[in-house]
Amino acid sequence: MSVMRKALLGVALTGxxxxxxxxxxxxxxxxxxxxxxxxxxxxxxxxxxxxxxxxVSENHGPSHVSQATVRLAFSEPMAGGQExxxxxxxxxxxxxxxxxxxxxxxxxxxxxxxxxxxxGTPEEVTVDIGTxxxxxxxxxxxxxxxxxVLVLATxxxxxx
Length: 160
What we know:
This protein has one helix spanning about 5-30, and strands at about 40-45, 50-60, 70-75, 90, 95-100, 105-110, 110-115, 125-135, 145-150, 160. It is built from one helix and ten strands; from the N terminus they run H-E-E-E-E-E-E-E-E-E-E. Strands 1, 2, 6, 7 and 10 form a five-stranded antiparallel beta sheet that branches. It has a five-stranded antiparallel beta sheet with strand order 4-5-3-8-9, with no helix packed on it. By secondary structure, the chain is α+β, with helices and mostly antiparallel strands.
């Protein structure tokens, strides 16, 4: 067999292997994202221009989530120059995003506590809480990881 024929045969065999592998992968269907059921619970309090948020993130399963991100959006601006816990950052003067850390199936992450100053002294603040990223997993029950809480400036904890 000539060198040219061997090279052509090698290219043809390589093409057949690639097509065969592609057909096998296609026959199995597209990859399915793991399913997790993330939930955020806690309470929020507002008093004398201060806003406290206490939050626990959980995963009711069935799949493990190595990392997720929760977004806290406020109807009133927060005062500038405030430091946040290491897992959090400011997206704007009204939005904070935080990493939850690892969320094993049927497990909870540590509590997140924020003590913020508002830009003024509002009589009420609405806080929207929700997952914005969950490591590529799907969540068939997003109702327990999205909350809207109206908080009056009474110092009372409003549970979500």
